[in-house]
Specification:
Shape: globular
Strand order of the largest sheet: 1-4-3-2-5
Structural class: alpha+beta
Strand content: 5-15%
Oligomer: single chain
Order of helices and strands: HHHHEHHEEEHHEH
């Protein structure tokens, strides 16, 4: 099982980040009580999927180091809501009402434990639309029967808690407008985690990566 520093190295390598920047995020998040802490060296505690989720949020938001804890707490607290109509894919009902950081941590755990058939038949895309301050999880499911209809897509979105509790027609709250202004990303820039990323990260944390 990897330690947090080893997780930082893995994430930096996978997503072509400067390792020093990811380690800097880890230091800020640890000081804010948002990462697993304990003894250093060989007795250091194992990293968790929640540690990975919070580091990924900081990386995807490209937060400034001094702002990383605030950004992770803000987006990590967004609450999930089903956007698509119809029946939710099996096992995804728990995303409704869940905090974004917990949803991502659960997805990493599930991805690590998924069978090759499950990975092949279901794809997940986790993305942060920073300009509009929401997080999206798009689940695409392929039927087992090759003669069946086209793949089915179902989307969940995670919104600012104040916005999620209001009627959208009332417009955004001051807090949501502040999030829009603070975390703007630039035209067409949407950070994404694909299924293969989620599987690789989950397996690394579980100590099952090759």
């Amino acid at each position: 099982m990897p330690r947090v520093t080893e997780l930082c190295t893995f994430l930096a390598d996978r997503f072509h980040f400067e390792e020093s920047k990811v380690l800097g995020y880890a230091r800020i998040l640890r000081e804010a009580g948002l990462l697993t802490t304990g003894p250093r060296g060989k007795n250091a505690p194992d990293a968790t999927t929640l540690d990975a989720a919070r580091l990924l949020l900081a990386m995807m938001l490209r937060a400034k180091k001094d702002d990383a804890a605030t950004a992770v707490e803000l987006f990590g607290s967004f609450k999930g809501k089903a956007i698509s109509d119809g029946t939710m894919p099996q096992g995804t009902q728990r995303l409704v009402g869940a905090a974004c950081e917990n949803a991502l941590a659960d997805i990493l755990t599930a991805a690590a434990e998924a069978s090759p058939e499950q990975i092949e038949n279901r794809q997940l895309v986790f993305s942060i639309v920073r300009d509009l301050a929401y997080v999206s999880i798009l689940v695409t499911t392929w039927p087992d029967d090759e003669q069946a209809e086209e793949p089915q897509e179902f989307e969940f979105r995670f919104f600012h808690p104040e916005f999620a509790a209001r009627d959208p027609e009332q417009g955004p709250t001051d807090a949501l407008v502040a999030a829009w202004n603070q975390y703007r990303s630039g035209f067409y820039e949407v950070p994404i985690l694909q299924s293969q990323d989620l599987v690789a990260i989950g397996q690394f944390i579980e100590g099952r990566s090759k």
